[in-house]
Amino acid sequence: MNNVINVIDREGEKHILEWEPDQSLMESLRDNDLPVMASCGGTASCATCHIFLDRDVVVSLGERSEDELELLVETECYDESSSRLSCQVRHDPSLNGLNVVLAPEE
Amino acid sequence: MSDKSVVIVGAGHAGVQAAGRLRELGWHGGVIIIDQESHAPYERPPLSKDLLKPDAQDDSALLRKASYFQDKDITLKPATSVLQIDRQKRMVALSDGSGLPYHRLVLATGSSARKLTIPGSELAGVQVLKTKTDALTLKSGLIAGSKVVILGAGYIGLEVAAAAAARGCNVTVLEFQDRVMNRVTSSVVSHYFQKLHESHGIRFAFGSAASHIEGDGRAERVFTTDGAMFEADVVLVGIGVVPHQGLAENAGLECNDGILVDENGLTSDPYVYAAGDVTRSICPFEGTSRRLECIQNALSQADQVASHILGLEPKKPEVPWFWTIQHGLRLQTAGIQQPEDEVLLRGNPADGRFSVLYLRSGRLAAIDTVGGLADFLPGKKLIAAGVELDRTLAADPGAGLAQSARPVAA
Predict the structure, then answer these.
(1) What is the pLDDT of residue B315?
(2) What is the mean pLDDT of residues A32-60?
(3) For residue B294, what are the contacts with CB-CB under 8 A and spacing of at least 6?
(4) Portion of chain A with pLDDT greater than 90, in percent
(5) Residue from the list A30, A31, A106 with its beta carbon closest to the beta carbon of B377
(6) How many angstroms separate the CA of residue B178 from the nearest CA in chain A?
(7) pLDDT for position B1
(8) Quick check: A47 and B377 CB within 8 A?
């Protein structure tokens, strides 16, 4: 089942996208023309797919990997309770209706 | 579809990014990608990393989901080569016998693995690692107990060495220089990685160049110029790449170890662009002309090309960066170090995580992070800013790297 997600881009514009089950969240954003560079192809190496999610969602997703956290903490607008690398967020039916905000480019 | 088509040659990172960005930025004409390979466009980094792991699937990640190209009205012509460019008529001749007119042409033909030319190079079992087909062939030869000889201790050679060792192979790496990754990092990082590989049973022969390979139809023995012999079931040649520029050269475009492009990715013909590994351009952070073999450059040049075709302002150039993972340990580099750079160690290698800073005239020119990423983004920003560092602060891992920037003198 595809999830539907609500994405706010860097200009504040809202997009409603489909998120397919075999995609990471980054892949859904990128393949739907949102400007996430994703220069590392989804290996938590570059922080160009930084997003903000609702706090309770971040809690439900569990711990971030050490690589992800080290990259995120050094981004200018890191927010402990809402920052994630979208390449590290796997599809899950419970994330249907997810709100995603693109972080500013570094 | 308008008759104005952008024809892109090559479906690697640069070609696919250029196509995608053209659509994102609002190009309404045709977008056609011609690709020699028959696989759907795929990510390259996993070919020497995840794809070779013992429990890996035979599928490496795709650059875009399968339906993407159709959804975006991007025509993908796989298993097709471009034979010739007719710059006067603005047409390309394809291997299927057809001709294709272009409004703008983008050459994203990448690079080819440098071939070994010594006697025995053509024997079965001697191979390079560049494409998905290469990776699958290599993987089928990495059987526990088999003898793997790797020529070249660069990123590819070492990533394969690690994967082969994890699969229980008997691995020897022959390297002409006196240390691993000689071209891309300092001796402190080289020695750290050499020890890591040795602790996984990998053997090195430095100052060692292969002279010939022998075997009965298949490679069995590799000989070196200093008279040594290494038994081999698989010989992996990882001695660098050469730009795939024949098409451009034959069309009379300016080339010099790479297709020459300006900051917009434009070649010497105003209707022809090039992006990615195949190009040579002036690096904005170095002022020197160079080829950059990295995804960052492929994506960023593809963006510049798409922006320029649409008459839009290009993005600011990004500091080049690179990464490799060997035995689960990550080496990530931003900027390009030079042998003359002052080397400053930040942290202790014995802890398994440290950074090496490369200073040029007191300014940060490049950084290697080993086993951790905390210094990567701050390092990349300091390089882009071109600021001087306070050496004492920079060498103290207890202080954030960003704090080591010296205030710019008025």
Answers:
(1) 83
(2) 94
(3) B320, B321, B322
(4) 92
(5) A106
(6) 29
(7) 43
(8) yes
